[in-house]
Amino acid sequence: MAAAEEWLTEAASVLDLTGTPAQLQELHALQAHLAFTQGRLEDAALLSRTVLSEEDLRLPYRDRVRLSVLDGRLAIPAGRVEEGVAALQQLARQATQSRHVGPAAHVWQAPATALAACTTPPGRPPAQLAPAGRADRGPSAGWALAPAERTASQIAEGSRDDDGWRALMEPARRAA
């Protein structure tokens, strides 16, 4: 992670002087992801919101989806659980309807990961996502991780389980 931070710092010094708007947006998106990874959630939120609110957003589709997922995930630990999950659901529907299976799978997994991180007791590592068809990694892994375990055909068809989403959100609502 230190190498990524060093590289982005060097790139920022050059791109601030000579970078195109698209390159600057990509840089700020990468900085937002790095800040999130480092646990600097406020910095990540500021960077992601700044890029996403630009009038002339030039990020490629996948990068835009990933940054929007990050923005939705950041709303959850900030106490805006319903807003974050609703944003992630909307992104998942859009990615599914556009038949972008890779981004759609990433988006469907995001709420499960974000909510698991918010509801994990201190001192205990977050639960690992069970692979599709394996719900033996915890007492509630079978239903709580259902949105993350969608098959490509389910994603392409746009199927989703509203009860699963409600069940997934409930522990985070109580924690917030």
Automatic annotation (TrEMBL):
Region (Disordered), start-end ranges: 121-164
This protein's name: MalT-like TPR region domain-containing protein
Native species: Streptomyces heliomycini
